[in-house]
Specification:
Blueprint: E1 8-12, H1 24-38, E2 42-48, E3 59-67, E4 78-84, E5 91-96, H2 98-101, H3 119-135, H4 137-140, E6 146-150, H5 156-163, E7 170-175, E8 183-185, H6 188-192, E9 205-206, E10 209-211, H7 212-219, E11 222-225, H8 228-233, H9 244-249, E12 254-256, H10 286-297, E13 306-310, H11 319-331, E14 335-340, H12 344-356, E15 361-365, H13 369-378, E16 381-384, H14 394-401, E17 404-408, H15 411-416, E18 423-425, H16 430-450, H17 454-464, H18 469-482
Parallel strand pairs: 1-2, 1-6, 2-5, 6-7, 7-11, 11-12, 13-14, 13-16, 14-15, 16-17, 17-18
Antiparallel strand pairs: 3-4, 4-5, 8-10, 9-10
Amino acid sequence: MNSEKIVKILFAASEMYPLIKTGGLADVAGALPDALLNAGAEVRVVLPSYRGVVEQLDSVEELISLGDIGLSPAVGEVKVLQGTLSSLKTIIWLIDCPAMFERDGGPYQDENGEDWEDNMLRFALFSKAIAMLGVMGEQSGWQPDIIHLNDWQTGMVAAWLHSWNVQQPKTVFTIHNLQYQGVFPAESLARIGLPQELYSIDGLEYYGQISFLKAGLYYANQITAVSPSYAQEIQSAEMGMGLEGLLRSRRESLCGILNGVDSVQWNPATDRVLHTNYSKNSLAKRLQNRNELKARIGLRDGQGPLFGLVSRLTSQKGIDLFVEAAPALLNAGAQFAVLGSGDSDLESALLQLAREWQGEFAVEIDYDESLAHLFMAGSDLLLVPSRFEPCGLTQLYALRYGALPLVRRTGGLADTVDKQSGFLFENIDSGELQECMFTALNSYRDSLQSGSGEWEQRQQYAMEQEFGWGKSAQNYIECYRALGADLIE
């Protein structure tokens, strides 16, 4: 190993907390790059310059112009902006193309919740710009050794680099959720300027279309999934989403690395959002947050446990199983607090339960970051009954805050929750979920009635679990080293 060399990582993501967030990828992009920097790497994060992002930066300047980068139809000049944010150490690069990214709505959908019709062109441009930055070190003043790609929005970076016969960085492609694949019509290939020979089963072709996700899986030098269990599950027909054969063929280049949690942002001892701060050694103070949560969302005082649920309201997250299982628990004295938004049918079913069980079942159809913190600090248990879960961050936040996770044994949930720190059920079945919830309810009541302190001991054990980003960063560094990139030690 060359001890003089520090690896340079260009971390590419379509969202990043706190600048723009729709899901867990933003949390990863907002935390892992700084953890890599702390471990000795040199890092830049690159993301699209969506409307409102530049205004959040503390400083910004034009780094380089990429000109018209050859998409059809032409979209105008593409610039790379460089900026900083006081809450992060990592330098931020923005791909600036107003025709593609300067618009109202979200990063992937319009104000009505419909996918942008030009998403193919938008993220093809984003990917090509990243690939160009990977080989333009002399012009930008910074040459990456590794481009770390994340999800389908960056998958085409690996395809462009493959098509160019130039010296180039190695690529690592991380799967955050195989369900989202970036699939577009085959004729899109001509519009984005990639060679037609890449359209084959040994390339971009995916059931008669092209898949941006498959591009990353096929052409990247290394593939990672966001938990060891998920890395195994996606090689099966049940979980492989039609890509299991490719993933099995690349199993020697596929590994699972757990996500972490930001131990500064998510820390009950210092969290400014909470009514009362606490630690594993002062759990009595936690009750003040429970009372505050109940008052805020309209739940009555009760003797049963408070089950929290903070989630996208989709079938993937097992919300339909929860809707079926909850009434029996309500009859037994449990209370429920739900925070999230998603499928309209599931939202309606939850709101109906709230009407039928006013004061015992409360729903906030929204996502509020501050309220999510209070849910972690005020719930006795946190439900994550997912059909599949690549990693999951909710259960990690719950562990840190002493809300015992109740989860299905799948993906990252299986890798992070055990029988001491939470409760687990096996199969995608509302009856099994209900039985597991009754086990948790009885455990809570038994501890309360006996005065044994067993529940508090479980909470303390949960809060002792370590899932910080430092460990994840070290695992990624080993991944980079395997590709021939050195780090100062």
